């Protein structure tokens, strides 16, 4: 499983599709190139292209902006539990 396509775009080699009927299928992937800031892959010998819905840019600037705010949140507070519908136990 690859969750960081930026660092692993050339090592991704399988696509696992899950269908509504709970069946699944695996397809071979081959990295082709970057196109419009997205990694582009060919799917087996089908002639089809697959482009993951993840842009190829580092998210460090977003993390650096959001993290200080998230660090201020008391995740064990009654307000957060009530908002999320979580009981204190």
TrEMBL record:
Residues 37-89 form the Peptidase M26 C-terminal domain. Coiled coil: none annotated. InterPro entries: Peptidase_M26_C_dom. It holds the Pfam family Peptidase_M26_C. GO terms for molecular function: metalloendopeptidase activity; zinc ion binding. GO terms for cellular component: extracellular region. This is Peptidase M26 C-terminal domain-containing protein.
